[in-house]
């Protein structure tokens, strides 16, 4: 597997730089690491760039922030004026013309839905919120209520017209949302913009949706710790990351126990039932958008189906922690000093 890394904690990835912060380049300038943490897209973003000086570092960070904010305006379903909201507002009424960027994102999302047989579905936003994970739900909703909760969900009812550049949701009340892919996409776009503008090394960490490229100023890889999701102080492995995306989904904070079964807050969009069996899923692949979608999908699929699925994908690896706290990896990952099960 290519060099990668990641740190599991409350579904958030935290970066640990463990080598030197500066190194001279040919003209005598010292490369340095510049970082900024702020709230974007309703989540914590940790931005890291390597640059020659503070002025350039700040300019690059400002550039990344502006790009992420632009993406948020495009895909937000909370902003009534966004193109995504316009699509939802016209569900069952009329097609909506959108920017090519949003059209392409929806096209890729539908492809992932087909690949995962519906385990990933951006029309999950249509789902009725019958499940709560705040301790207030004491009994299982009825089968009929669960069935009806996903009646409007179905990527098959998203109609794309390439010639007109329009998106149409067939059924009234249907909605799309990018909660399971949006931060990963934003991380990818911010990275692409920085690379285009000459930033040779950096990390975009969107609350656990991480995309890293290049290396630290001393030439060493970026390093991230994988920690026990139930004990944030216990690191069970370090992995290097270079030109890779790493994303984790976790249910260790949001879950409910009903009839002796532990159910996560990640709902299967096909059935309306919460997923179970997986406590955390970490995906390693080339871009954060895909990793984001696959991490959610693996939760829905469960350990056995999810691992079998990942092992069939080229350039994708995963680390899972099941409900028994067993660490399970896909076939090309080896965690030194950790008792794992590889399938």
TrEMBL record:
UniProt cofactor(s): Mg(2+); Mn(2+)
Main enzyme class: transferase
Catalytic activity: L-threonyl-[protein] + FAD = FMN-L-threonyl-[protein] + AMP + H(+)
UniProt entry keywords in alphabetical sequence: FAD, Flavoprotein, Magnesium, Metal-binding, Signal, Transferase
Record organism: Flagellimonas hadalis
Pfam families: ApbE
Annotated residues for binding of Mg(2+): 180, 292, 296
Residues spanning the membrane: none
Enzyme Commission designation: 2.7.1.180
Family, per entry: Belongs to the ApbE family.
One of the record's GO molecular function terms: metal ion binding
Protein name (record): FAD:protein FMN transferase
Cofactor binding: number and manner: Magnesium. Can also use manganese.
UniProt key word Metal-binding: yes
Position of the signal peptide: 1-24
């Amino acid at each position: 597997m290519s060099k990668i890394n990641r740190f599991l904690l409350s579904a958030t990835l935290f970066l640990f730089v463990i080598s030197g912060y500066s190194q001279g380049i040919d003209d005598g300038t010292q490369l340095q690491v510049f970082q900024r943490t702020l709230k974007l897209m309703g989540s914590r973003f940790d931005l890291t760039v390597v640059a020659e000086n503070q002025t350039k570092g700040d300019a690059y960070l400002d550039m990344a922030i502006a790009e992420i904010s632009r993406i948020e305006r495009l895909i937000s379903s909370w902003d009534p004026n966004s193109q995504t909201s316009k699509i939802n507002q016209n569900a069952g009424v009329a097609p909506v013309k959108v920017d090519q960027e949003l059209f392409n994102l929806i096209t890729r999302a539908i492809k992932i839905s087909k690949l995962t047989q519906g385990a990933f579905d951006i029309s999950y936003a249509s789902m009725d919120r019958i499940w709560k994970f705040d301790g207030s739900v004491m009994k299982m909703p009825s089968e009929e209520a669960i069935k009806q909760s996903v009646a409007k969900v179905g990527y098959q009812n998203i109609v794309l017209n390439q010639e007109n550049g329009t998106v149409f949701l067939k059924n009234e009340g249907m909605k799309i949302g990018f909660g399971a892919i949006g931060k990963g996409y934003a991380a990818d776009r911010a990275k692409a913009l920085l690379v285009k503008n000459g930033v040779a090394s950096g990390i975009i960490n969107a609350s656990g949706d991480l995309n890293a490229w290049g290396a630290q100023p001393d030439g060493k890889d970026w390093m991230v710790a994988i920690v026990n999701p139930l004990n944030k102080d216990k690191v069970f492995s370090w992995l290097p990351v270079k030109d890779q995306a790493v994303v984790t989904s976790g249910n260790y904070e949001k879950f409910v126990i009903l009839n002796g079964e532990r159910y996560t807050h990640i709902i299967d969009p096909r059935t309306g039932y919460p997923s179970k069996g997986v406590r955390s899923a970490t995906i390693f692949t080339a871009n954060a958008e895909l990793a984001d979608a696959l991490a959610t999908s693996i939760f829905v699929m469960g350990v056995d189906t999810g691992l079998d699925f990942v092992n069939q994908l080229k350039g994708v690896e995963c680390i899972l922690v099941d409900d028994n706290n067993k660490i399970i990896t896909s076939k090309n990952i080896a965690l030194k000093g950790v008792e794992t099960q590889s399938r």
